[in-house]
Write a structure and sequence with these properties.
Largest sheet: 7 strands, mixed
Shape: globular
Structural class: alpha/beta
Number of strands: 16
Number of helices: 17
Radius of gyration: 24 Å
Amino acid sequence: MSRPVDFVLGHDQHIAIMGPNGGGKSSLVDLITGKNPLLQGSLTYYFGEGVKASAYGNIVQLTFEDALGSVEKPYYFQQRFNSQDRDESPLVSTVLKRALASGKVTATGLSADEARAAGHGLTVEDARMAGAEDDSEFLSNPLLDTFMMRPLLNKRMVLLSSGEMRRYQLFKYLIKKPHVLIVDNPFIGLDAPMREQLDEFFQRLIADSNVQIIMVNSMLDSVPEYITHVVKVHDMMVEPKISRAQYLDEWERGVAFTSNVMGDASIIATLPEKEGSEGSVISIRNLSLKLPDTDRVLYRGLNWEVNSGEKWALQGRNGSGKSTLLSLICADHPAAYACDISLFGRRRGTGESIWEIKRNIGFVSPEFHRAYKENRPAIEIVASGLHDSVGLYKRPRPEQMDTCLFWMKVFGIDSLKDRMFLTLSSGEQRLCLLARAFVKDPSLLILDEPLHGLDTFRRNLVRQVITEFCKRSAKTLIMVTHYVEELPGNITKRMEL
């Protein structure tokens, strides 16, 4: 931090740490949890009489990344569609029970039959497949229903969608019954009903337990009612703690934060028009897809036609198959070649390479973000989009690097061009990957939760960028979001899964 930090979490207080991307929120959390050694000053904990004064076991932290690598071997993009890795991936129930055991939760003494008789909804076969015949505490945990985890128990970890992964992690950390729960942007990636349910759960958690919440929030215009105080963090400085009411008043008056967004969507209008395709861009006929290790079938005869210049919103609940459908279109899913899918008028599987498919597509998603672990200068991350590679294996020409810098200016990250990608905040990384998606000036943009993790100012910027880009001729858009207000104004069509 750029100046000394004073931070106190008082009794019965629940704090929101608010601030723009790259402002220092994660650094403050690292100080609170003792992750980084202090250069001066002191850090003390008190969780009550008889409780060890240590962060270990008393503070749990749910981070934005929600990476599968934390529970398995290192994760790579579209790993869930590789049959060998999928078969090696543990069941959700196995990982959750391991977390329950590590949390030293006292058993209820109920047998599996008694737990079922008490109305917890698992048959003997369900319990056996979940490996939970004797895990009465696990079966009877009410959080299974709060987070709708029972349908996921027999699902392999690698098959979880972004929203399902968030539900899983919240459940895993909360069953440890911490004294302090630090949650980083807990509502992103969740559909509206799940956000409402999670919000109600936090209210009950605060009312019925001794858990105190520290919520790290990039959505600067949103502070839940159960938050009592706000700590503003910006420019690597921590402001004094203020009440929620005071913060909301400051936000309403426009003085809570000064926007430091340097991007400029208007310069997109200076780009020359590219000749685009006409007619059908995507044609899907009679699509049905059986999910691995289940009897569930997605889509059940879906027909979808996307024509050049159309702007689509793809919507649906967590786990409804939105990301899987996009992976079929982008040829990242191995079943793509067994389906009746045409792209830019050409039937999939008629001899085209995956690179020919991707050449006209700009793409970003939370799954792609969490798998992108190349630690290169930010401008090289953007440049990797020129050839649809993860990493940079072909040196761009000077004019191509100029194009990369142009898009970094559009997104306000040109000052980060020489910073190493993995040293950036998650929001800054997302902006780099967005610039990477636009750098080819593609005719088809596929944006899966593109504003995921961005602060309010940068969310507005990216929405403007998408709008300006799509004003140009023959630009086709498919955008996934759980927040209707994130959709650009030129959306004209919707698909609900």
